Amino acid sequence: MKFWLIYKEATKQQKIRWIKKWGIIASGSFVLSFIGMLLLAKLMGPPALFVPQTTIMYAADGSKMGEINNGGQNRYWVPLEKIDKDLISATISIEDKSFYKHNGFDIKRIAGALLADIKAGAKVQGASTITQQYARNLFLTHEKTWRRKFQEAFYTLRLEMSYSKDEILEGYLNTIYYGHGSYGIQSASRYYFGKNAQDLTLGEASILAGIPKGPSYYSPILHEENAKKRQGIILSAMAEDGSIKKDAVKEAVSEKLTYVREEEEEIAAVAPYFQDAVMRTLKKELNVNTNSIQFGGLRIYTTLDPKMQEVAEHTIENRIIDNSKIQTALVAMDPRSGDVKALVGGRDFGESSFNRALQAKRAPGSTFKPFLYYTALEHGYTASTPIKSEPTTFAMGDGVNDYKPKNFKNRYANDFITMAQALALSDNIYAVKTNLYLGPKKLVKTAKKFGIKSELAGIPSLALGSKAVGVLELTNAYGVFANGGKKVEPVFITKITDSKGEVLYKHKYESEQVIDENKAFVMTDLLAGTFDEKLNDYTSVTGSSINHYLTRPMAGKSGSTPNDSWMVGYAPQLVTGVWVGYDNNEELHDVNDTGYSKRIWAYFMEEALKNKQILSFEQPEGVTAVTINPQNGKLATDSCPVTRISYYEKGTEPVEFCDEHGASSEIKEKLEKKEEKKGFFKRIFSW
Q1: What's the burial of 416, exposed, middle or buried (CB within 10 Å: 0-12/13-18/19+)?
Q2: pLDDT confidence of residue 46
Q3: Residue 229 to residue 319: CA distance in whole angstroms
Q4: What is the DSSP letter of 402?
Q5: CA dist 331 to 250, 340, 648, Å?
Q6: Cα 530 from Cα 556, distance rounded (Å)
Q7: Has keyword Magnesium (predicted)?
């Protein structure tokens, strides 16, 4: 107030001097402030250009199988060279004609906008450059305050000082909002026209370039008339700039456009349980945080085989009756690499996202027996080793009730059977006797060697699969038999890149030889016997109900408890495990319930491998093939009515000929010669 009184009483010359003085001070302050801001911007360096982007999952064949985005905001980054040139020209013509000439601020345009606002008495014209809009999209809100404008100017300086014009333009086109949840030109191109940003026509490009000014008002879907008017303005500006010929304007305006609204179409989720497994792998095994998954624009390349997945889903849908509440899980893997090719964790992900392939643990029943019989091979058993199958009560001698296992439907040979028969028939008496003879702790140790991580107990009933395991771990464990004794880890993700293709993670395939190659092949032959009716004449082998489905070499084992039904098996290039049961652990109701797992497995294996090369299991050098009588495991003679080629480790094959059907003098002579060749110890302890 005092200064104003002095100023009023001052002479004209004094007033002029004061105005000049304070004008110089103000100008100097402005210049110094501007220089200071430039220096600060330079010292701070390039701003981080973090832009939330949609993460995409790809199947093994390169097809897109799923997306992860932030609340329906679809964002995809594409390089400038993969954006249609007409779209780029249209955007520059309507948004910032001098983009490649100014340093972030178009002074002439700012002055013009200010004059227009003064004349109108309101803000009627914008003057923001592409760089300013990019800065606002990256770092700021859209509130109209002086503080926000100052911050915008500062970020604009930093962008212009640190990045090229092409980099700024690329960033702008990948972040600007085009309406309907589409951020960036790639998302917009896909949403409105169902195509990539590099494939747009001039008519499509000029429509899209007009949307950012008012995404709702200029949406061609909501207000096509407004969009077409703005299209005309943009095309005229392009013709004026010389980026298109005048003749092209009329042609583009009259071009018939079809809006597909791709992202709004109802698209069936591809392998939702598999995607759930991928998400678990990202978070728990690869330690990728949730923000990076949701906003990082990752490209996740998976092992999923879409055709096998489709076969798995259709098989389950078609093989289980609609009104049943029974649940199922299926895992299919390549045993050579560990790549998970298909995974189903339940009958309907929409109704229940509980992933039974990964999260559920159920008693595997007789599917656990192959680990027992591998242990037996390690301790002197062969496919021909005989043990008597008859009702047996085991006195445990520990003060607990005696243990009395039973065979299915109380069927017993009441005679000696071989290990090959015991596995094919799923004889429980043979299994428990073997487990007790070896010592149950040995079976626990073997199962861990195969990769079974679930808690086990060294008890007699472990031989019958009394302890719960997961579908994925059991399937992977069978893969050790299939690949010649190597343990591999299940693989869901092969590679992760950022949106620009930079590799962030690549899976390193590793394997470990955990069991003997020769014994693994012998076990495969034994497991193939579950489909071979020759192995028994008093009851059916466990795979008899599905062996007519199988057209290629396969091995496997079924298993059941009162509450669970399993089938796990393999061909050389594919191992599959199937579980069927009720979530509330109620007992299986009927033969349909108990038969689902085998039928699903057989149909899936055949369809999944259809038109693929038929491979045989590769016989190692340490294994020999001999022709035996499968009813007693002895070498077959011409008199034997049934014969089978069986495999043994060299030196463990049977030497005794079958004499149940009358042996010729020639056979006796061969027997005597073989006995003479054997050493004293082997002759005395031939077992």
Answers
A1: middle
A2: 53
A3: 57
A4: P
A5: 58, 7, 31
A6: 7
A7: no
